[in-house]
Amino acid sequence: MIEATFAIPGDITTPTGGYAYDRKILRCIGDQGIVLHHLVLPDSFPFPSVDDLEATARLLSRLNGTLLIDGLAFGALPASILSQIEARIVALVHHPLALETGLGADDAERLRILEREALKAASAIIVTSETTAAILASDYDVPRETVAVAIPGTAQVHRAVGSGTGHALLAVGSVVPRKGYEVLVEALARLGNRPWSLTIVGAMDRAPDYVRSLRARIDEAGLSDRIRFTGALPDHALPSLYDKADIFVLASHFEGYGMVLTEALAHGLPIVSTTGGAAAKTLPDAAALKVPARDPAALAEALASLLDDGKRRRALADVAFSYAPNLPDWSETAAIVAAQLRHGKT
Question: Global pTM?
Answer without folding.
Answer: 0.92
